[in-house]
């Protein structure tokens, strides 16, 4: 009885080994779906959504399209965007305080862009900071930007040794990219 049980167990183990070898052999000869970074890099990044970045104006690649309204910072659920802009003149009529205390589901921006009928007076953008390690990549900032000044980067290989690497000054980054393109 003991010999028959031992042979039966050995046959089950042998069958299990062949099933495992069949699965391994099938996957070994299939085309590879992933790449071995850093030996290879991905070349199809059309759908990749990296951190947000500023879009340059059409006239000057070192100047952002951003009008400094602050809507992106107000809408950000992660509170990872900080916009520094020069206050407009009091009589410009472009900005007005938010509706504090209202019962709205979405946060109301502190500032809004002037309606199209009014001549737009852009605020001078002094700084645009992104804390990427807290960003949820929801896209509300890029989706609702009235000036179309935000987009997702395709920087898939963005890595760093610490959190400070992911606290990005997007305005300085835009200026650096413009300098690199100009060379």
Report on this structure.
With 183 residues, the protein is an alpha+beta fold. Helices cover 27% and strands 11% of the residues. It has helices spanning 2-28, 71-75, 140-144, 170-182, and strands at residues 52-54, 81-85, 125-131, 150-152, 167-169. The strands form two sheets. The chain has a three-stranded antiparallel sheet.
Span from first to last CA? 84 Å
Determine Rg (CA atoms, Å). 27 Å
Strand order of the largest sheet: 2-3-5
Determine the mean pLDDT: 82
> In percent terms, what proportion of residues is strand?
5-15%
Helix amount, in percent? 25-40%
Specify the overall morphology.
Answer: elongated
Number of helices: 4
Count of individual beta strands: 5
Helices and strands, in order, run as HEHEEHEEH
Class computed from helices, strands and strand pairing: alpha+beta
Ranges where pLDDT stays below 50 over 5 or more residues in a row are 94-104
The biggest beta sheet reads:
3 strands, antiparallel
Short précis:
By secondary structure, the chain is an alpha+beta fold. It has helices at 2-28, 71-75, 140-144, 170-182; strands at 52-54, 81-85, 125-131, 150-152, 167-169.
How is this fold's topology laid out?
Layout: H1 2-28, E1 52-54, H2 71-75, E2 81-85, E3 125-131, H3 140-144, E4 150-152, E5 167-169, H4 170-182
Give the tags:
alpha+beta, two-stranded antiparallel sheet, elongated
């Amino acid at each position: 009885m003991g010999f028959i049980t031992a042979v039966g167990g050995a046959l089950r183990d042998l069958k299990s080994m062949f099933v495992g070898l069949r699965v391994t052999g099938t996957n070994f000869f299939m085309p590879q779906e992933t790449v071995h970074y850093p030996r290879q890099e991905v070349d199809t990044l059309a759908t990749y959504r990296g951190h947000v970045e500023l879009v340059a104006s059409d006239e000057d690649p070192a100047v952002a399209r951003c009008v400094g309204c602050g809507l992106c910072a107000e809408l950000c659920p992660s509170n990872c965007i900080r916009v520094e802009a020069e206050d407009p003149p009091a009589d410009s009529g472009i900005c007005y305080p938010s509706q504090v205390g209202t019962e709205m589901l979405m946060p109301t921006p502190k500032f809004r862009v002037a309606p199209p009928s009014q001549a737009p007076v852009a605020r001078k953008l002094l700084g645009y900071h992104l804390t990427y390690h807290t960003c949820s990549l929801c896209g509300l900032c890029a989706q609702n930007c009235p000036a179309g000044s935000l987009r997702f980067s395709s920087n898939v290989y963005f890595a760093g040794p610490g959190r400070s690497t992911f606290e990005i000054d997007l305005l300085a980054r835009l200026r650096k990219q413009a300098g690199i393109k100009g060379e």
